[in-house]
Amino acid sequence: MKLSLVVPCYNEAENVAAFQEAVISAFQGCGYDYEIVFIDDGSKDATLHNLKKLYAAQACPVKVVSFSRNFGKEAGIYAGIEHATGEYISLIDADLQQRPEIVREMVSILDEKPEIDIVAAYQDRRNEGKVLSFFKKGFYRIINRLSEVTLHPDASDFRTFRRSVGESILKMGEYHRFSKGIFSWVGYNTHYIPYTACQRLAGTTKWSFKKLMNYAIEGIIGFSTRPLRIATYLGGLTAIAAMIYLIVVVLQKLLVGIDVPGYATIIVLILLLGSMQLICIGIIGEYVGKTFEQSKNRQIYIAKEILDNNKSASE
After folding, report:
1. Calpha distance 296→291 (Å, rounded)
2. How far is CA 18 from the centre of its chain?
């Protein structure tokens, strides 16, 4: 098998059949074998039902991995790589915002340039609001300053890579996954190409602002320990300021005499110091919580059903 297209799906019932048709059209006459590995991430609609139809028809080689519940796109990516058999593996969404024709271009680049291991696509222009765009740019600036690895701005999970890259990713068994950071951490020679995202064929995006914020926090916590150092610096600066203020108060009392500090001053200092302490405790709590969940060594996903013609029922 030359190419495996890994397609995580969550409530994409209206898109999966059209996606397969687009893939077949894009790869017509390509001269090599390919397969589509659909991951049903605990969808609540008819996604699994429609995927079973595609599997039964086998208009092109299709595999289906159905999760026991919604584990998230990151788990879907991991499962897809695990079940892919292609020499090249491509990550692509089912909503056709990312076109299969670009995947074929990625494959050509990998064929022509053996020194390149990953071809990743980034959006040359985004059709989104200014507020969301501002926060995304801010996220990349922050994480690239805090993290030891560098993330390419506007680069998504839409990429094609060699099997050796996939094997390296599978060895990273962390429960809380951040694929953009993982691809940067494993290294390999990456070539970036621009693309313009199309409109969704059907349905709505599953990424709300809240989910994007949580995803950003996952990335920062997962690939940098500098927030812990920031908490240490805040604590140190606060302690130094408190000591200086203590010395000033004692000298004033001994030399010139002062009245008891006013109510407003005390309240302001309590609120300031208390808020700094809570921020530091919150930062530490994020790391402790992630460590606690990772220490349980739970599965990244649970496959309720696997449809694969190449495997027996027992497997």
Report:
1. 9
2. 25
Q: Is 62 helix (H, G, I), strand (E, B) or coil?
A: strand
Q: Do 21 and 51 share a domain, yes or no?
A: yes
Q: DSSP strand E in the chain: where?
A: 3-9, 34-40, 62-67, 88-91, 118-123, 155-162, 190-195, 303-307
**For residue 199, what is the DSSP state?**
P
13 within 8 A of 2, measured Cβ to Cβ:
no
Q: What six digits make up the tokens of 127? A: 């059709």
Dist. CA 195–CA 214, nearest whole Å: 26
**For every one of its 315 residues, what pLDDT tens digit does the chain have, with 9 covering 90 and above?**
889 999 998 888 888 888 898 899 888 888 889 999 999 988 888 888 899 888 888 888 889 999 988 888 888 888 899 898 889 999 988 888 888 888 898 999 999 888 989 888 887 766 666 666 666 666 667 666 766 666 667 777 888 999 988 888 888 877 777 777 787 778 788 888 888 776 666 656 555 556 666 666 666 666 566 676 676 777 777 777 777 776 776 676 667 665 655 655 666 677 677 777 777 777 777 777 777 666 777 788 888 888 877 764 434
Asked whether residue 71 falls in the same domain as residue 160, the answer is yes
The reply to whether 70 and 108 lie within a common domain is yes
Q: What span, in angstroms and rounded, lies between the C-alpha atoms of 53 and 162?
A: 30
Shared domain for 157 and 240, answered yes or no, is no
Is the backbone of residue 303 left (phi > 0), alpha (psi -120 to 50) or beta? beta
